Amino acid sequence: MTHTATGKLPPHPDHADPAHDLAAENRALRARMAYLLEQAERNHSIMTRHQAFDLNIIGAANFPELIGTIFRVLPVISELDSVTLTLIDEDADIRTVMLKLDVVFADFPGLIFVETLDQLDLELGRRNAAVPAPKPLLGMYDKLRHAPSFPNAPAGLQSVALVPLMRNKRIIGSLNLGSCDPTRFTPSLGTDFIEHMASIIAICLENVISNEMLKYIGLTDSLTGVYNRRYIDRRLLEEIARARRQRYPISLMYIDVDHFKRVNDTVGHGGGDEVLREVAARIKNELRTSDALARFGGEEFVVLLIDANLESAAFVAERIRAGVAGSMIVLSPSLQLSVTVSIGVACLDVDAAEGEAALTARNLIERADGLLYDAKEGGRNRVVSFREPP
Ligand SMILES: Nc1nc2c(ncn2[C@@H]2O[C@H](COP(=O)(O)OP(=O)(O)OP(=O)(O)O)[C@@H](O)[C@H]2O)c(=O)[nH]1
Q: By its UniProt entry, which Pfam families does this protein fall under (predicted)?
């Protein structure tokens, strides 16, 4: 045993000065408490931010607003380096409707559509009745494996969580979270929080998608897929207000298929429907994306042209007329027929147009309808854009 110069034994490490021990323990406890407090504050702040996020997405009025909020806010509040969303869209219904409602998908590069469940990155092989809800998949990012879920992965992505989006026991897609921190998503991490977040996102998604579908159905003609009268009535009011503010002309075409009764008599009602679909497609072919085409009922169509004066609208109308008459409509190899349309074109003079928008809209439609009547009277298969003096 070694003795010190004073003859005292040095303090044994296991029997250190009790006061010193207590101070050290105290310091350690304080540090631990400070750490826990910091964690609690951080968790509280995350919870508060997430509650605000939940309210935000629950309040989203439409699909772009919801998706936009998810992509903009979630990476910030959850401190993530990548957030993408994969949606199952079997027959491209969601995409068709959203496009029709003017959603610009290029604005959302993190939005991915797949046709089938198997195309999701989730491990669904073990799914059976006993395991109704698949769990989120957490782990290291694998460039090859995760490319479909993270097509534009940021450099340095390290760990990912692929969280199923469930509605009524059905998987509608996955929420894909990525972090440059390799310890962020490890297989041992609890997933309650992200599952809860995903369930709210899934409810909101289903809600806005159903609402957009209803909106679409309410504004669309089911036979031809173009807009219906309700849409044009509503849009015309908006466009008249905008055209007056920004001082540009708008024009309206009233189109009617000539002798359509004969078409029905010749090819039957089903054949007539097919002809209407083809006529709608040929009209659409001549229009810009800013123009709106609607079936007004029967064999009548209306086109609203934005920023088009009478001359340019009449020019487009002539192209439509020629496009419909230009080639036979083929119903089957043995059944082809030639169809023509008559068109009345009227323009809203924003300098002269005053008064209530609803009245202005009605006048515009009536003028185009009157000119269509002139086109019919004049022999059909023609465009009339001004009334001949008597
Ligand atoms: N196939 C089909 N026919 C329709 C539809 N809606 C209306 N029709 C038919 O469209 C025809 C319209 O005929 P009319 O209004 O008499 O006019 P038209 O024969 O086109 O003659 P003009 O307009 O004077 O050239 C009627 O026979 C309607 O039954 C529809 O959704 N599908």
A: DUF484, GGDEF
